[in-house]
Automatic annotation (TrEMBL):
Molecular function (Gene Ontology), one example: mannan endo-1,4-beta-mannosidase activity
Residues at the catalytic site: 182, 289
Family label: Belongs to the glycosyl hydrolase 26 family.
Protein's UniProt name: Mannan endo-1,4-beta-mannosidase
Reactions the enzyme catalyzes: Random hydrolysis of (1->4)-beta-D-mannosidic linkages in mannans, galactomannans and glucomannans
E.C. designation(s): 3.2.1.78
Length: 373
């Protein structure tokens, strides 16, 4: 019996490896530790949390979440949006600002996830699809496309940045890279109406291959995250490039969590599809984006979000809510001091299931941490 238990443990460990055989030690450790933590906990994340917040920007070591709870979110969301489609000096500045943010987060012990609101590389329109302006760029930038070399140049810029992010310990900072998110919708130029499944898979595979194998980027964890337009595992995997190309699977879902409707049962069922597939395939799972703008529901954190994540036995590495705009009085997704949902958010913060940055100890090391295992 003991031998069988050990054997099962070895098999699970093998299935939970990064898709990068040369991943840095810190990246491998983060990957393993997120697997372990997800058995009992979920890390809380907030997009652009330390870059700016409700009514402020650029303050050192500040976040709205920290102002409310005393701790930064465990996961800080950032973006490669400034890495292309701008003048050289603007790109250089964006890379340096992001480098500092990412390194500071790592030095504090937090986790970084990077989205990519990628401006259309072959037409106007930005990252959104704009009729009569945007071109379906995926077919142009995949191997064989007329803008393929341009895309390789953009990826080289990302690769150079990835090699520059070193913590105070001298180690490369691991990041959870989440490109081409919400691809099952039509609002981005890489969305389902604008590219075939085969083209999307080709883009994903080339992106991973070029960064990992040609540019020797070994501190990325690759995350596949559609929006919530699936109702089965088959639909979830419609544009999935294959297990050898993905480390983490996720879902973005605002619609079922108050934006369009309150449907906790449906939202939880979709999360379970993601979590179940991850466990079956030996991948990480996460609730990669959600939130309720302005958080007018004063019990949303526990009665909607936490309830949905705990409806089924799921293993979710993290949940991330969207940004708090600096100027808009209504565009925010995490509470700030005095906001109506603060008392309920404190209950969410204090729940043993949720983890914030102050809860994380040595998440980039192999040894056990938190005393929770």
């Amino acid at each position: 019996m003991v031998f069988l238990v050990l054997l099962v443990g070895q098999v699970q460990a093998q299935r939970s490896k990064s898709i990068d055989a040369e991943a840095t030690r810190e990246t491998r450790n983060l990957y393993r530790n997120l697997h372990k933590l997800a058995q009992k906990h979920t890390l809380f994340g907030h997009q652009h949390a330390t870059e700016y917040g409700h009514g402020w920007a650029g303050n050192e070591n500040r976040s709205d979440v920290k102002s409310v709870t005393g701790s930064h979110p465990a996961v800080i969301g950032v973006d490669f949006s400034g890495f292309s489609g701008r003048p050289h000096e603007a790109i250089k500045k964006a890379k340096e600002n992001l480098r500092k943010n990412v390194v500071d987060t790592y030095n504090r012990g937090g986790v970084i996830t990077v989205a990519w609101h990628f401006s259309n590389p072959v037409s106007g329109g930005g990252f959104y699809w704009k009729d009569s302006v945007s071109l379906p760029a995926v077919k142009y930038i995949i191997p064989g496309g007329e803008a393929h070399d341009k895309y390789k140049g953009i990826l080289r810029g990302i690769g150079e940045w990835a090699h520059s992010i070193r913590g105070q310990d001298g180690k490369l900072v691991p990041v959870i890279f989440r490109p081409y998110h919400e691809f099952d919708g039509g609002w981005f130029w890489w969305g389902k109406p604008h590219t075939s499944a085969g083209e999307f898979k080709s883009l994903w595979r080339f992106t991973v291959t070029y960064l990992r194998d040609s540019l020797n980027v070994h501190n990325f964890i690759y995350t596949f995250s559609p929006d919530n337009k699936f109702n089965s595992e088959e639909e979830f995997l419609e544009r999935y490039p294959g297990n050898e190309w993905v480390d983490m699977v996720g879902m973005d879902n605002y619609a079922d969590f108050g934006r369009d409707r309150y449907d906790i049962e449906t939202g939880a069922r979709k999360l379970k599809i993601v979590s179940d597939y991850a466990r079956k395939a030996g991948k990480l799972a996460a609730f990669t984006e959600t939130g309720l703008e302005s958080v007018p529901d004063t019990t949303w954190w526990t009665a909607t979000l936490l309830k949905a994540m705990r409806t089924h036995k799921m293993q979710l590495a993290y949940v991330l809510v969207w940004r708090n705009d600096t100027r808009s009085p209504t565009h925010y997704y995490a509470p700030y001091p005095g906001q109506a949902s603060v008392p309920n958010f404190m209950k969410f913060y204090q729940d043993p299931y949720t983890l914030f940055e102050n809860d994380l100890k040595n998440i980039y090391r192999r040894k056990w941490f938190l005393g929770l295992f």
